[in-house]
Structure to design on (184 residues):
């Protein structure tokens, strides 16, 4: 029991962020279902910590895809549980809010990427898997995963740079010609 608790503590936050990138508000439900399956099938798993993380991420991905399919079959209006209860107090509310906002902002930016890039970034950066394990989960070669993750990260960097520059920056000055993507 203690070993399972340790696995959960080490992996839950990464898996939850991955699921959030895939299904948004339904991420907690998806990861809860995934952990039920993990607990049920754990005795069949063999491997090291990285192998476990990859195996768990695959389960989360499968549950997320199930959730997406179910959502398209029968759309549901969900209510955020936080709206129904008062959250417990925190000693450092500003830091907690800042961390939550930055995580939500990052996940929202990742969600705007093309699906293959978003999943590659989530699995490589958020979950911490290598290219080979990510490729197995996504059904792609490790090289294709590295390319998708690189393109996704480059796009995120460009968007963040544009957001930091904001209106009135040198790139928006009159007479400065904007070039279309691709450098033409």
């Amino acid at each position: 029991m203690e070993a399972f608790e340790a696995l959960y503590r080490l992996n839950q936050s990464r898996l939850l962020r991955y699921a959030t990138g895939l299904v948004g508000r339904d991420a907690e439900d998806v990861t809860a279902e995934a952990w039920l399956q993990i607990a049920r099938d754990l005795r069949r798993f063999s491997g090291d910590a990285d192998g476990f993380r990859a195996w768990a991420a695959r389960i989360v991905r499968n549950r997320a895809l199930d959730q997406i399919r179910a959502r398209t079959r029968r759309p549901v209006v969900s209510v955020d549980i936080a709206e129904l209860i008062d959250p417990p107090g925190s000693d450092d509310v500003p830091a907690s809010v800042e961390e939550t906002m930055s995580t939500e902002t990052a996940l929202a930016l990742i969600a705007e990427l093309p699906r293959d890039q978003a999943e590659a970034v989530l699995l490589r950066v958020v979950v911490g898997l290598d290219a080979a394990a990510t490729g197995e989960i996504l059904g792609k070669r490790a090289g294709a995963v590295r390319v998708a993750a690189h393109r996704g990260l480059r796009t995120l960097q460009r968007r963040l740079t544009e957001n930091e520059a904001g209106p009135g920056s040198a790139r928006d000055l009159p007479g400065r010609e904007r070039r279309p993507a691709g450098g033409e």
